[in-house]
From TrEMBL:
This is 3-dehydroquinate synthase. Keywords: Amino-acid biosynthesis, Aromatic amino acid biosynthesis, Cobalt, Cytoplasm, Lyase, Metal-binding, NAD, Nucleotide-binding, Zinc. Belongs to the sugar phosphate cyclases superfamily. Dehydroquinate synthase family. GO terms for molecular function: 3-dehydroquinate synthase activity; metal ion binding; nucleotide binding. Residues 62-173 form the 3-dehydroquinate synthase N-terminal domain. GO terms for cellular component: cytoplasm. Its main location: cytoplasm. Zn(2+) binds at E179, H234, H251. Its cofactor is NAD(+); Co(2+); Zn(2+). It catalyses: 7-phospho-2-dehydro-3-deoxy-D-arabino-heptonate = 3-dehydroquinate + phosphate. Its EC number is 4.2.3.4.
């Protein structure tokens, strides 16, 4: 088992760890009722297994529709009302069982219902395992954009079982690989080379990606500076997602195009070495994250100004000087 200890909670990673959910919960929770928030797909796949594992508990399931549309104010309110109708009380435990959508929504519900309940994350997509379940960011979308309402709210525990990824669609799997390539680029050369060499992903690589995130979150929990490195590729990535109404491109695909644009810009400004662009492009093509012809950055410039990561009116951009060497540089739109 790999354990990553954060100041207030542990992340544990092991194949088959879901089978120990019962014991793990008992170490942090003394009541009998559990409230599992999940989506319909994950419910269909794992309800029976999880009910069996948690048979000592009184388990209540709350299902949302799969997909980003569920990270809405409407679903937020409906889910909270449902929890209240089911008799949830202060100190009861919420379990977020699912991908990043479930994790973000359930985490935000946990942060705000009765001014905060304990919750744990059981991420079931690769993206959620390496990214969204780590770092304490929770939230929902509004009609103006993604994640515009939310809170920093840490779970009590994160259980990562790579076995649950066996049921994941290939494109969803690739989505997580995009974030892992990003983590390799900004903070772990061994991970980067592992993915470049197309070797299988195990708990070790999942842990390496998490550690890249954990290391920057530790020094910058509230996203003021270093945590911005995690947004490498995301400035354009978010614009691409938004322009296409979050439908045409998955997050991982959008940030893959975004990372290539950031590498291209870095080369243009004399920051990034040429070789990286070709290597990374080849990886994204291999993992089916991008297609040629690539997207043109000019088509997304107007949306960049809306990105939350911009401070005042300067565009703060993350560049890669080399593998493990990200830098933040303010750029003018005319540089792009
Ligand atoms: N909080 C953060 O720090 C953070 C970081 C990155 C992304 N996010 C958020 O994460 C969300 C995206 O997460 P995602 O990519 O996991 O998407 P998702 O939650 O929509 O899951 C993708 C699909 O996979 C299905 N699925 C989940 N687990 C499965 C399994 N084990 N087997 C088969 N199917 C399964 C889901 O039903 C869904 O259809 C976005 O809303 C994004 O904003 C948050």
């Amino acid at each position: 088992m790999i354990t990553i200890s954060l100041p207030t909670y542990d992340i544990e990673i092991e194949q088959g760890l879901l089978n120990q959910l019962n014991e793990k919960i008992k170490t942090i929770y003394k009541y009998n009722k559990l409230f599992i928030i999940t989506d319909e797909t994950v419910h269909e796949l794992y309800q029976e297994k999880v009910n069996q594992i948690l048979k000592e508990f009184e388990v209540y399931w709350i299902k949302i529709k799969p997909g980003e549309k569920s990270k809405s104010i409407l679903v937020y309110e409906e889910t909270i009302n449902h929890l209240i109708d089911l008799g949830i009380k202060r100190n009861h435990l919420i379990i977020a069982l699912g991908g990043g959508v479930v994790g973000d929504l359930a985490g935000f519900i946990a942060s705000s219902i009765y001014r905060g309940l304990p919750y744990i994350q059981v991420p079931t997509t690769l993206l959620a395992q390496v990214d969204s379940s780590v770092g304490g960011k929770t939230g929902i979308d509004t009609s103006r954009g993604k994640n515009l309402i939310g809170a920093f709210y840490n779970p009590k525990y994160v259980l990562i079982d790579p076995n649950v990824l066996e049921t994941l669609e290939p494109l969803e799997y690739a989505n997580g690989i995009a974030e892992m390539i990003k983590c390799g680029l900004i903070g772990n050369k061994e991970l980067y080379l592992h993915l470049k060499n197309k070797k299988p992903i195990t708990k070790k690589e999942i842990a390496q990606a998490i550690n890249v995130k954990v290391n920057v979150v530790k020094i910058d929990p509230f996203d003021q500076k270093e945590r911005m490195y995690l947004n490498f590729g995301h400035t354009f990535g978010h614009a691409i997602e938004k322009r296409h109404h979050y439908e045409k491109y998955k997050h991982g695909q959008a940030i893959s195009y975004g990372m290539l644009i950031a590498l291209e810009l870095g080369i243009q400004l004399g920051i990034t070495p040429n070789y990286l662009y070709d290597e990374v492009k080849e990886m994204f093509l291999y993992y089916k994250l991008i297609n040629e012809p690539l997207l043109d950055k000019k088509d997304y410039l107007d949306l960049i100004a809306l990105d939350k990561k911009n401070i005042a009116d300067k565009l703060h951009f993350i560049f890669i000087e080399d593998i493990e060497k990200p830098i933040i540089k303010p750029v003018r739109s005319t540089d792009i």
